[in-house]
Amino acid sequence: MVTVAKDSARMTQTRLGAAMLALALLLPASSAPALAEDAAKPSLPEPRDAAVRARERAAMIAFYDAMGGPDWIQRDFWGSDRPVGDWHGVTTDADGYVVTLTIYDNNVTGRLSPTICGLARLQTLHLSFNNIFGTLPEEIGNCRALKNFWVKGNKITGRLPDSVALLPELDYLDIHANQMTGPLPTKWNTPKLTQFWGNDNQISGPLPAALMRQPLLEKLLLFNNRLSGPIPATLSPSLGLLLLANNSLSGPIPDAFGPLKKLTDLRLNRNQLTGPVPPSLAAAPALQVLRLDHNRLQGTIPNGLAGRLTVFDASDNPQLKPVRAAVPDTAHR
């Protein structure tokens, strides 16, 4: 009886091995590594607190429902029981909290839903090149951990909410290539802001002095808008690139540009600026590109300015005189 039992066990193992071999032969060659890889993939963490898990999922589902989720181009695992870190465009931190939502060029449609601010640790909201329309909600200021807010290339209208200009962690703001109007917020308290891309809209009103003073601001792009009034006289010491072309800015060019040690690219062309070209610009140590054309500047271009720049254009300023070239001495030749 023992021998029969052993023989039966051997036969069972042989049949099992043959079945596994047959299955392996039927599967594509690439499937075996994929199966092994999937089996080895560690499960993503989720917040330990059940209330937090429920809140994060509820915020995500509400956003999905409000923004045309069923019609998204990619929507893998949204609404499923899998950890939210598996859902398309979602990244979570080590505790399972959602920190990044990257759903660009994906047919996200509708007015931006503030329900997304139910994600307590959301740092990056990347929704560029979609079909987002209407005004941005003031409640976006409830996303207190937000560092990167990118909604370029949509159909957003109206003003930039005042609350966005008060986000304490905001580093990179990109609202360019929309249909936004009205003035920018006057109060800015974004001590970590390094880049603001707001070009190619219809933003009007003054250039906020508080924005220009943000201590870490490196790049400010607001060309192709309807800004008016003077350029503020106090500027961020971190400023490296300032593009304000094709607006209706008026008044003089501030002397404050000259001392900026990081300024490489300054474009103030196609405005209504008046007064002289500040001599201090000739001393700006890193300046490489200077566009002042199509304004109403007066006086004479400072000596030493044009010759050391990679790009310099001061054309179409009818009352601005070029630097008089030195006349060579040919009397003794």
Keywords:
single chain; 333 residues; alpha/beta; 11-stranded mixed β-sheet; 4 helices; 21 strands
Please describe what this structure looks like:
The protein is an alpha/beta fold and 333 residues long. 17% of the residues lie in helices and 22% in strands. Strand 1 and strand 2 form a beta hairpin. The N terminus and C terminus are likely disordered.
In short:
The chain is α/β, with parallel strands linked by helices and 333 residues long. It has 4 helices and 21 strands.
Query: What Rg do the Cα atoms give?
Result: 30 Å
Structural class designation: alpha/beta
- Tell me the total number of β-strands: 21
Proportion in β-strands = 15-25%
Per DSSP, the total helix count is 4
Topology overview:
Blueprint: H1 2-26, H2 31-40, H3 50-66, E1 90-92, E2 98-102, E3 109-110, E4 124-126, E5 131-135, E6 148-150, E7 155-158, E8 172-174, E9 179-182, E10 195-197, E11 202-205, H4 209-212, E12 219-221, E13 226-229, E14 241-243, E15 248-251, E16 265-267, E17 272-275, E18 289-291, E19 296-300, E20 311-313, E21 319-321
Parallel strand pairs: 2-4, 3-5, 4-6, 5-7, 6-8, 7-9, 8-10, 9-11, 10-12, 11-13, 12-14, 13-15, 14-16, 15-17, 16-18, 17-19, 18-20, 19-21
Antiparallel strand pairs: 1-2
